[in-house]
Structure formats: C-alpha cells, structure tokens
Design a protein that fits this description.
Elements (H helix, E strand, L loop, with lengths): L5 H11 L7 E4 L9 H16 L3 E6 L9 H13 L6 E4 L4 H13 L3 E4 L3 H8 L16 H13 L8 E4 L14 E5 L13 E3 L1 H11 L4 E5 L6 H10 L7 E5 L3 E2 L6 H9 L14 H7 L3 H11 L7 E2 L1 H12 L5 E2 L1 E2 L2 E6 L7 E7 L9 E7 L1 E5 L19 E4 L4 E9 L5 E9 L16 E2 L2 E2 L4 E8 L27 E8 L11 E4 L3 E5 L10 E6 L10
Parallel strand pairs: 1-2, 2-3, 8-9, 10-11, 12-25, 14-20, 18-21, 23-27
Antiparallel strand pairs: 4-5, 5-6, 6-7, 13-24, 14-17, 15-16, 17-22, 18-19, 19-20, 23-24, 25-26, 26-27
Adenosine-5'-triphosphate binds next to helix 2, strand 8 and helix 9.
Catalytic activity: tRNA(Gln) + L-glutamine + ATP = L-glutaminyl-tRNA(Gln) + AMP + diphosphate
Subunit structure: Monomer.
EC number: 6.1.1.18
C-alpha cells in the first residue's frame, strides 16, 4: 500500500529531475543478534519504497565486526525477513568487499588523507576533545605517506597486536562535528570471521565501511535511523575521498519504539544471555521470532508498522496499537473455541450419569463460512474458578448459590450446593440443568444475565496456558537513551503466568502456530517450543478487550 512520506517525496523528485534513473535500497543488519520489530520498520520502508518505484532492495549483512557476529544470526535474519513477506533481489555480505575497502583505504593514505596512529583507544578519546573544546593532533598524525603505507601493509600482515595501531582518516581535529575529528577507519582484530575465516586481521569500522558498501552496490538511497544524522557529512566525505563512482544519498528516519519493552539488540541479547527470558524467541520480547512464537502474524506487524508512519521522531508507540492490529487480523480467521484456564468442577446432579450428547457450536460468529462443530456435554464439566463467588457483590451475574446462568452453546444451570475441602476451599459445585433451555431451541421462558464458557470434564484435553504481561515496567524504556538507567532494574517479575487447564476435545489436531480465539479469554497460539500432542501449550497473543482507539 502506497503511503506518502518525506522519503518517498525525495525519491520521487530524484526520479523526476533525472538525478536518479532507478532506485536501489538495502536492508543492512549486522548479524550480531535477532531482528526486532524496529528492524521490521526498516525492512518495510526499504522494500516498500523500492517496490513503489520499480526499484530493488538488497539484503546486506553488515558483517565487519567478527567478534560479535555469527552464522546463527545470519540464518535467523534471512528467515525473519522472508517470514515478514519480503524477498531480496540480491544477498550481499559487507565482508565480500574487504579487499576493495582495503584498496580504498590505501588510496586515502596515498592522498595524504589517512594515517596510522599508535595512540591507544583511551588516548584517542582524550585527544578528541569535546563539543566545546577542539581536539588535539596525534603525535603520529604527520607520518609520511611511505611510512603509513608500510605500516598499514604490516597491520594487514598481522605484525601488530590488537589495539596497538589503527588507521585514521585525516580530516580536521577542530571540526565542530566530532565525527570529523580523524575518525578511526581500521582496527586490528586477530579473530576468525564467520565469512572470511582467518584471511583478515584488520577490519574496517562501520563509519568507513557503510558508505563504501552502499556505493559498491550502487545503492541510491541509503535509509537509516536518525542516530546516524551526525555521521552524514562523514558518509559523504568517505564516498567523495575514496573516489567512488556511485554516490549514494543517506536519508534518516525515526526509530520505532514501543512502550514497556526494550528495542535494542544489545539489551535483548543481555536478556537472553542472562536467562531472564527463554531465548531469542521468548514471546515477551519484541524480536520477530518472539512475536511469531507468541502468535503475531506478519500481516498484523506490517499493518502496525505502516500505521505508525515515517517521520524523524523517535517516540514510543503504545503497545496497545500493535495488539489492535493482531486482533483485527485474526478476527475473521481464528476459530472460536472454549478453554478453561483455572478449572472448577461442576456436577450436574440431574443429568444421567451414563449419558452424553453433542451440541452444535458455530466456529466463528463473525464469519459464517467457518461452519460449526459438535462439542460434547455430560454430567461433569469445568468452568472458570472466578466465574463463581460464594458471597458475590451486587451486579455479579455469574455463579453463586441459588443463581442461574447460561452455559454457552448448552443449557441454563443453577447452583445448588458448594462442596469444600477440609480447609474450606471450594472444590466442586453441584448444579442442576433445565433441559428446556437448550441453546438453539428457541426457549424464551426466562432470562439469565451471565453466560459462561465450559468444557466437558470427561472428554476435555488437559492444556497449559501461558499468559503474558509487559516485560518492562517503565513505559518509555525503549526510547530512553540515557546510559545510567539500567533496564534490568525495571523488569516485570510477573511477565509470564503459567496455568494448567482444559480445552475442547476437538482441539486434538491443533498444530504449533495454529491460532484460536478462546471464548472470553482472547487469541491464543499453539506454542512451537513446548507444545506436544499429549500436553498442548497455548500462548496468549492478546486478550479480547482493548483500550486502544484508532483514529481513522
Ligand atoms: P540495535 O540498536 O537494536 O542493535 P542496530 O541499528 O544496531 O539495532 P542493525 O543491524 O545495525 O541494528 O540495523 C539494521 C537496520 O535496521 C539499520 O538501518 C537500522 O537503522 C535499522 N533499525 C534498527 N533498529 C531500528 C528501529 N528501532 N526502528 C527503525 N529502524 C531500525
Ligand atoms: Mg548496530
């Protein structure tokens, strides 16, 4: 769906004025973690604009940091991009360009625009100055071209230890833009790379590598998030000074953040590694694999991201908005069923012990085409514990002694007796049913106010339900850039509740990733990690009620 935004406006103009004759974009993840829904925004924008203007998009692994990267992440990222519904024209690896990048660095040295520096990381930082104070030249800044070429060559050959030397661009130590104060463009790292193995022991820095990658691939519009805005002049400098033929244009847009969660690979990785969540696909984190396992559909994620729009702002979007879109997406497709999360047994004392019957139930009242099913009913059933109160407040219309309610798709039942254990806990209710009140019979004799869901005790399948609450208690944590705030101090200890209940017997063939609406409880997904035929596990995707109102 085409949507106007400032990026499309720029591209359209570039095509109209002839500045560009085609559009090439790229989605450039670093394979150092799994993708999150923020990345989905970048994917949707990059693939979306290329598609609108008959262009193409590359999936490029920005793999210039061997210590943090791994094939596992490469595979997971590819899977997630496809799952979201996108397919790249070309698959690229930044590491395939290491030789070319090296040659461009040599070119900079030859032009007197780069030098080998022996200062260590701390010294470089101290020499850089601040926003209010200019930086200081490194004592190695004026090495001759010959010496620099010789040293850089020996860096490549592995003669020096990690951290003992770097290559820096020679720009301006007093520039008001700190990125121009002789940024480091190569570092030494004796480590094995997931793609190039041990061929290299020097690696280009992001700020140097990224513009070259874009230029090598003839990317026309390099779309990234606003934290790179300050780097744009350096990006252009690198393209220029390295004498790249192709001139990509960097355009920044605001990051997507969502309330009550975290949205950075670094933090997500910490949650995974410290065992605070159950892997990268834990349904509580906003990774695409987590959202998938929870039960989110790619369509709901795409709709949500489209609706959040493209701007320069970084504000957090209410998670209720994401939930809204998955409800919308599942409304007409998810079969309705009944499940009891916290069971309370009911014996229907006037229902014959050896009898049972099949009752008809519609599979989706909002979509008749989904047909009907038969659900068994007999003398013993389960209802929810909190659908009974011995001593109810006013306006409580569910079960209490002497009260009559409707069982969805079945009969009216009346509560006559409360059975308790030695400690006084309610363990069972004795009720009677009225055969005249059968659902669908047209009975109009009297009315009841409460309608409860239930399952037949004899035939029900035991099932586990996993109910989720936000992982982070601080609303704005995802968009909080302050380093002193430790997100681990704001983790919700009750983000996962596991309960054991029952589901209808006709759910026996449900497979992982099948989605249902459990009457009164919300939408659920069969878990891919723990669900088995003997013991199905259902993740709650979202409850039925929403406070979120979409303005359309
Ligand atoms: P993180 O900060 O979570 O580690 P990143 O920016 O380091 O993310 P990359 O793998 O470098 O992750 O990102 C690939 C692309 O996705 C980049 O162009 C980046 O700008 C974009 N991106 C990352 N996070 C978001 C977000 N929250 N919203 C929109 N785009 C994002
Ligand atoms: Mg990054």
């Amino acid at each position: 769906m085409e949507q106007s935004n400032f990026i499309r406006t720029i591209i359209k103009e570039d095509l109209e004025t002839g500045k560009r004759d085609k559009v090439i974009t790229r989605f450039p993840p670093e394979p150092n973690g799994y993708l999150h829904i923020g990345h989905a925004k970048s994917i949707i924008i990059n693939f979306g604009v290329a598609d609108d203007f008959n262009g193409q998009t590359h999936l490029r692994f920005d793999d210039t940091n061997p210590l943090k990267e791994d094939q596992e992440y490469v595979d997971a990222i590819k899977e997630d991009v496809k799952w979201l519904g996108y397919d790249w024209e070309e698959l690229r690896y930044a590491s395939d360009y290491f030789e070319e990048m090296y040659n461009r660095a040599v070119l900079l040295i030859k032009k007197g625009k780069a030098y080998v520096d022996d200062l260590n990381q701390e010294e470089i930082r101290a020499y850089r100055g601040t926003l209010t104070e200019p930086g200081k030249d490194s004592p190695y800044r004026d090495r001759s071209v010959e010496e620099n070429l010789n040293l850089f060559d020996r860096m490549r050959k592995g003669e020096f230890e990690n951290g003992s030397k770097v290559l820096r661009a020679k720009i301006d130590m007093s520039s008001p833009n700190l990125n121009f104060r002789d940024p480091v463009i190569y570092r030494i790292s004796h480590s094995t790379h997931h793609n190039t193995g041990d061929s290299w022991c020097i690696y280009p820095m992001y700020a140097f590598a990224h513009p070259l990658e874009d230029a090598i691939e003839n990317v026309t519009h390099s779309l990234c998030t606003t934290e790179f805005e300050d780097q744009r002049p350096l990006y252009n400098w690198i393209v220029q000074e390295c004498e790249m033929e192709s001139q990509p244009q960097q355009i920044e847009f605001g990051r997507l953040n969502i309330t009550n969660t975290v949205m950075s690979k670094r933090k997500l990785k910490q949650l995974v590694e410290e065992g605070i969540v159950d892997g990268w696909d834990d349904p509580r984190i906003p990774t695409l694999s987590g959202l998938r396992r929870k039960g989110y559909t790619p369509g709901a994620i795409r709709e949500f991201v489209q609706e959040t729009g493209v701007s320069k702002g970084n504000g957090a979007v209410d998670e209720a908005m994401l939930e809204h879109y998955v409800r919308e997406d599942l409304k007409l497709t998810a079969p309705r069923t009944m499940g009891i999360l916290r069971p309370l047994k009911i014996v229907i004392t006037n229902y014959p012990e050896d009898q049972s019957e099949l009752l008809e139930a519609e599979n989706n009242p909002e979509n008749e085409e989904m047909g009907t099913r038969k659900i068994p009913f007999s003398r013993e059933i389960y209802v929810e514990q909190d659908d009974f109160m011995e001593d109810p407040p006013k306006k409580y219309f569910r079960l209490f002694p002497g009260n009559e309610v409707r069982l969805k798709h079945a009969y009216f039942i009346k509560c006559n007796e409360v059975i308790k254990d030695d400690e006084g806990n309610v363990v069972e209710l004795h009720c009677t049913y009225d055969p005249e009140t059968k659902s669908g019979s047209g009975f109009t004799g009297r009315k009841v106010k409460g309608t409860l869901h239930w399952v037949d005790a004899k035939s029900a399948i035991p099932a586990e339900f996993r109910l989720y609450e936000p992982l982070v208690l601080d609303e704005q944590m995802a968009s909080d850039e302050s380093e002193d705030k430790n997100f681990l101090d704001h983790i919700n200890p009750n983000s996962l509740e596991i309960v054991q209940g029952f589901i209808e017997p006709n759910m026996k063939d449900a497979k992982p990733q099948d989605k249902f609406q459990f009457f009164r409880h919300g939408y659920f997904n069969v878990d891919t990690k723990y669900s088995t035929a003997e013991k199905p596990v259902y993740n709650r995707i979202v409850s039925l009620k929403s406070s979120f109102k979409i303005n359309k």
